[in-house]
Design goal:
The chain is an alpha/beta fold. Helix content is 29%, strand content 24%. It folds into 2 domains: 3-14 and 267-404, Lyase, Ornithine Decarboxylase, Chain A, domain 1 (Beta Barrel), CATH 2.40.37; 33-263, Alanine racemase (TIM Barrel), CATH 3.20.20. The structure holds pyridoxal-5'-phosphate.
Length: 407
């Protein structure tokens, strides 16, 4: 990647997404589930830039959305309504109403209370709401607690018994039609056993429901496939597919997949540059860069590890191989504003050297904010050997446009 050329042209910080890598990731999942009815519903929340969503839309993807805003993004780039799923623990009435009016594939119910709202709104509109139930299989996905969702102690989904009650009520309601089952046990999964176990439990539920004459068509396994941040051993997509498919024998269901991170994390770079270096209390070394937690929150929020690479020199000096330990931090006045701690980085760096934060394409820009009145960075894409802008750097005007008229 031509990080330096892009920095000269667009300034720093910026995000860069390698669309060729994104396509490869999509194809790997497609390939793994070949020969089985399946729908890859891209989890838009991982990277919701319209050009990114369009890239997957053009490859045939559907969309897993967690707000009406995401549903509109999906529709905007041509994802057909029958490939759109609406998930999330707290959907507002207006969102439910709009989703029903649009006529999306199904709404994932996360509680009995939500079933009640959806039923009421469907009745008001005179429609039948296609629903699926998010079941919490109570399985430890062995991932970071903040991105673990499949245990009863997490806020997501309902237990199997409550799910059954929702299905039975829905089947008997003129305004609800149960069409699917959904589970999503966590993110950045690197262990196959919890996935197989969850799939097994949910497949058993589907079989029980069949006996009750509730015939589900969609088996939605959520997202969560892990990616390489440091030295993780990843689940090969083929093994992932086999683990799920092996639990589905005798069931005629379409497998719905909701990958987010797996499609967009790798091949995504956050590029920032060195402002200053300083040493506190003698030997603690800090490198201050022009990107900050408002641009890329994951290290601050999850203490997430991202590989960090320095591009030093720019031909201006002899490049030394020597390294020493340092914290790479941003300018925001929060101690949590860091990208890496105790990293071995070149001892000789100077103002303007580039710092590449790897695996930053998922949950990167989408979690950014304007904290400290910092304009958000531009997003760039690399495709077919060329670079292009897919979102401009925000200007001061865009920052104040919703406030200005009130002063
Ligand atoms: C966040 C989320 C996903 C995507 O998770 P990844 O780990 O990015 O693959 C999929 N489905 C649901 C319901 C989610 O909440």
């Amino acid at each position: 990647m031509e990080f330096r050329e892009l920095a000269d042209k667009y300034n720093t910080p910026y995000y860069l997404y390698d669309f060729e890598k994104y396509k490869k990731q999509f194809e790997k999942i497609q390939e793994a589930f070949r020969g089985r009815k399946s729908l890859i519903a891209y989890a838009i929340k991982s990277n919701s830039n319209l050009s990114v969503v369009k890239l997957f839309a053009d490859m045939g993807a559907g969309a897993d959305c967690v707000s009406i805003g995401e549903i509109h993004r999906a529709l905007k780039v041509g994802i057909p309504k029958y490939k759109i799923i609406f998930s999330g623990v707290g959907k507002r009435d207006e969102e439910i109403r709009e989703a029903l009016e649009i006529g999306i594939l199904f709404i994932n119910l996360e509680s009995k209370a939500e079933m009640g709202r959806v039923e009421k709104i469907a009745k008001e509109l005179g429609v039948v709401a296609r629903i699926s139930v998010r079941v919490n299989p109570n399985i430890d996905p062995q991932t970071h607690p903040y991105i673990s969702t499949g245990l009863h102690e997490n806020k997501f989904g309902v237990d199997i018994e409550s799910a059954k009650e929702i299905y039975i009520h829905s089947k008997n309601s003129p305004h609800l039609e149960p069409v699917g089952v959904h589970f999503h046990i966590g993110s950045q999964l690197t262990q196959l056993d919890p996935i197989r176990e969850a799939s097994e439990k949910i497949a058993t539920l589907v079989k029980h429901l069949k006996v009750l004459d509730i015939d589900l068509k969609f088996f939605d396994v959520g997202g969560g496939l892990g990616v390489q941040y440091s030295d993780e051993v990843l689940i090969p997509p083929y093994n992932y597919a086999q683990a799920i498919l092996s639990t589905l024998s005798g069931l005629d269901v379409t497998v719905v997949l909701e990958p987010g991170r797996y499609l967009t994390a790798e091949g995504g770079y956050f590029v920032t540059s060195v402002l200053y270096e300083k040493q506190n209390s003698g030997d603690k070394r800090f490198v201050i860069v022009d990107g900050a937690m408002n641009d890329l929150l994951r290290p601050s929020l999850y203490n997430a590890f991202h590989r960090i690479e320095f591009i030093v020199g720019e031909g201006k000096k002899e490049i030394s191989e020597k390294v020493s330990k340092a914290d790479i931090v941003g300018p925001v006045c929060e101690s949590g504003d860091f990208f890496g701690k105790d990293r071995y980085i070149p001892t000789e760096i100077e103002h303007g050297d580039l710092v590449i934060v790897h695996t930053a394409g998922a949950y990167g820009f989408v979690m950014s904010s304007n904290y400290n009145s910092r304009s958000r960075p531009p997003e760039l894409a690399f495709e077919n050997g060329e670079y292009r802008t897919i979102r401009e750097r925000e200007s001061f005007e865009t920052l104040i446009e919703l406030e200005e008229k009130f002063i």
